[in-house]
Amino acid sequence: MSGARVEVVDPGVLRILLPGRASNAYLFLGKRIALVDCGSEESQRDLLAALRQLEIKRERISLVVLTHEHAGHAGGSAAFPDALLVAHSLAAAKLRHGEEPLTKLAAARAPDVELSDGGAIRIGGFSFDVLHMPGHTSGSICLYERSRALIVTGDTVLARGTLSVVTQNGSSGEHLESLERLASLRARLLLPGHGPLSDDPAADIAATAVTVRSRLSRWVDETVREEASL
Fold it and tell me: By residue range, what is the domain housing residue 108?
């Protein structure tokens, strides 16, 4: 039995819920299949078992997109050696040069193609705008399927306004500006990197922004107190 669960989240879109701290993995079906985020190295066996249950051979996945470079999202990429691996250029640099303190990966596969803001991915009947969304990490991206009003958010936004940590190469200020940009988009469904889907994007983006502003305010207050004590 696989430790993963599979559910249909939209026509032609499947979510694979992986165990432990591994990310959600999303399959976009068509003549060519795309996988967005691929879980951790430890969850590879569960991911491949889920694909077997779906009768999808790993060789049919022609594209693996990483929303960012963390081990829980990128660690499973070695399971798909025949797929094109793509990530934002800043995430790709960390993976390519083996920055284990930032990626938490002892051995990382380097992306084949580097993405940038404003790029596009077209595969299997889906058309994604690539949005560089720094904050959680410097190389985080979201994927916007405009015709479906659907956004794959990685760890930039989670459902119910749950806030992911800002890592040492991330920035709360950049995160806030990324959230403001997301709020300007027409969206009916968010596909986050962890936890449940968001069917109320506006509310969840706004709730996350409130928490980020609170974090920034606390940081400013603490800095002022520290300077006043010198």
Answer: 5-228
